[in-house]
Amino acid sequence: MMRPSLGAVVVGGGPAGLTAAIALAGAQVPTALIAGRPRPADNRTTALLAGSVTALETLAVWQRCRTQAAPLRVMRIVDDTGRLLRAPEVRFEAAEIGLEAFGYNIENRHLTAAMAAQAREIAALEVIAQDAVGIAISTDTVAITLDDGGTVVARLVVGADGARSRCRKAAGIETEGWSYPQTALTLTLRHSRPHHDISTEFHRASGPFTLVPLPGLRSSLVFVTDPGDAARVEALPAAELAAEIERRAHSLLGKIEAEPERGVFPLKVERARAFGARRIALVGEAAHVIPPIGAQGLNLGLRDAATIAELAAVAHQAGHDPGADELIARYDEMRRADVTSRTLAVDLLNRSLLSDFLPLQGARGLGLTLLQHIGPLRRAAMREGIAPSSAQPRLMRGEAL
Ligand SMILES: Cc1cc2nc3c(=O)[nH]c(=O)nc-3n(C[C@H](O)[C@H](O)[C@H](O)COP(=O)(O)OP(=O)(O)OC[C@H]3O[C@@H](n4cnc5c(N)ncnc54)[C@H](O)[C@@H]3O)c2cc1C
Fold first, then answer.
1. Residue among 11, 22, 42, 44 to mutate when testing ligand 1 (max atoms within 8 A of CB)
2. pTM, entire model
C-alpha cells in the first residue's frame, strides 16, 4: 500500500523515536512512526534528568508514568577501589541547587508504555508496528518500504532505529568509536532497607557499581565490570547472585532479592560522524552510544528528539521543507557540542577508574576532593551534569512546539 506523502517519518519505536514522533505530530507535522516489530523486553531503567522530565511533561507523557518513577534527591560516589590513592566520599544533594530532585528513575518498559499510549492519541500520528526494510532517498523525499511490502514517503526521516541503524547506513554515514574491556550487567533488586531516594555509585577498579532508586523497596543495579566477572555473576543461581550483590553493595540496602530478568551490555562509544545527511536526521543510539555512567545516554537522545522536532515544526509551520539540507546541517551543528562533551566526560571518568597509572588515580581523587569541599564548584558540576549550560531545546524549557 502506498500512503500519501508525509512531513516526517520516524523509524524506531524506542524512547528516542517515540519522543520525536510525539513532538513532531503534536506540533501538527503529519508524521508516521515505524515502530518496528515487538522486540524482547528491556529490563533497564532510565534516570531522567530535570530537562527530560520537563520535556515529557510538556508532551503529556510524564503524567502517565510519574507514579512509576522514583525521585533522585541525593547522589553519592563512594571510592571502593581499595587503592593507595582513594577519593573521599562525595555527596551531591539536589536541594543545594534549589531542586527537589536531580531527576527520576523509571523502568524503560513503563516509560515506553506511557509514550506509546500518548502516541496513539495524537491525530496527526500514524503508528505502524512493522520494520523498515528498505530506504530509498530521492531529491525531494525518502521512501521507506515496510516488511508487509507497503511504502511510506516523507520529506524528513528521523532515524531512531538504535545502534545498528539502517537509516544511518542509508544516509551513508560512518561511525567512529572504541570499546572498553567492560560489560554492564543490569538487574532489578528488591531490598529490605529503604534507599531514601539516594543513588549510590561504588567506584570499583573494574567500573562503577550503581544502585538507583525505584519506587518502594526496589532499586535498579548497573554493575560495570570485566566481561568474565559479568558472565560469572550473571550465571549464578538466584540465591548466590543475591548474596554476591549484597556483599558488593556493602549491605547498604539490607537483604537483597534479584528479579529474574538480567541484561548484559558490552561497553563502547560509537558516534555517527554526522548526525544527519540526505533528509535523514539521526537521534538516540542511532547517533551516539556511550557507557551507562552518569545517566547521560537517553537524556542526550531526548534532547536530539526535541531539537529535530523543533527545527522541523518551525519549517513546516512556515511552509518550508522539513528535510532540507540546511535544516539537517543546522541539526548536526546544534547537537555536536552536547554529545561530544558528555561522551568525553563519561570516557574520562571511566578511564580514571580503570587506569593503574598512579598520577591519573591521584588526579581523580583530587578532582573528587575539590568537588566535596568547594561548594561553588560542586554546584556548577551538578548544574552541568543535569543539563548543558548552552541553550536547551524548547521542550526542555517547558514550551510546546
Ligand atoms: C545498562 C544501561 C543503563 C542505562 N541507563 C541510562 C540512564 O540511567 N539514563 C540515560 O539517560 N540513559 C541510560 N542508558 C542509555 C539508554 O538506555 C539508551 O540511550 C536508550 O535506550 C536508547 O534509546 P533509543 O530509542 O535511541 O534506542 P533503542 O531503545 O535501541 O530503540 C531503537 C528501536 O528501533 C527499533 N528498530 C530497529 N531497527 C528497526 C527497523 N529497521 N524498523 C523499525 N524499527 C526498528 C528497535 O526495535 C527499537 O525499538 C543506559 C544504557 C545502558 C546499556
1. 44
2. 0.94
